[in-house]
Amino acid sequence: MSNKVAFSWELYNKAPIVGIVRGVSMEVMLDIAMAYLGAGLHTIEITMNTPGAGQMISMLRSEFQELNVGAGTVCNMEDYEKAVAAGAQFIVTPIIDEVVIKTAVAQGIPIFPEHTPQRKYIRLEFRGISRKNIPGHPAWSSIY
User: Fold this and answer.
1) Are 19 and 41 in contact (CB under 8 A)?
2) What SS3 state is found at 112?
3) Is the pTM of this model over 0.90?
């Protein structure tokens, strides 16, 4: 699969919600995609730390053209290259990797680095918190 069809802002703007899928089987992913479209949603992210993520991205791109399909948890160029080769139409990264960001921009692939000043401060202050930090997540309760 290649990125022959660009990310559709039109589809995204119909329902500006990105569903994040992590750690499911291909069979479950098919059910999720059908339900997702049935709910009127069009943009979905498969995390690269999901077993078979590349195959899921390729399958979704082939079977569900009305979905924007992206790759999340892209932490380095190896993840990026696998995601793009699978057909990811956008990239989400939990870190700032300048090479990944510049490559995506140069290739015209939307990229969404999840890095805020607060997250940077927490990582520096509490070294060792490296996963995506979401308020309400158990990792936050030990900090606040």
Assistant:
1) yes
2) strand
3) no
